[in-house]
C-alpha cells in the first residue's frame, strides 16, 4: 500500500525515535524537524502540508537507484544531492520503504562517528 504524505512523515518520525540516542528539534527553521544522532543529522521532516517530504542520507549508488526507481524520490532537497534523497508520497512509497530509509540513514550517520561517540559506546 502506498503511504500518504502525513503517514510517510509520521512513519519516519516513529522510526527515528525508536533508534538509540536520537534527538530532534528545529535548528534551521521552524518548518524543518531535524533528527540527529550524536549531533549528526540523519533525517529531516518538512512540516509544510503542501510539501510532505522527508530527506535522508543514502549511499550514492543506492540514491541513484531510488531516484530512477520511484517517481516521488528525488535527490536530497536541502543537502548534497549525491548523498541525500527526499521521499514524498506516491506509487511504491510504503511504510517499510520509509522505515528502511530512515534506519539506513541513521546507520550511515553512526558509521561516520568516532567509536567513542556511537550509541552504546558509553
From TrEMBL:
Keyword annotations from UniProtKB, A to Z: DNA-binding
Keyword presence, DNA-binding: yes
Annotated InterPro entries: YjbR, YjbR-like_sf, YjbR/MT2646/Rv2570-like
Molecular function via GO: DNA binding
Pfam families listed in its UniProt record: YjbR
Protein name per Swiss-Prot or TrEMBL: MmcQ/YjbR family DNA-binding protein
Organism of this sequence: Streptomyces violaceus (Streptomyces venezuelae)
The organism's taxonomic lineage, starting at the top: Bacteria, Bacillati, Actinomycetota, Actinomycetes, Kitasatosporales
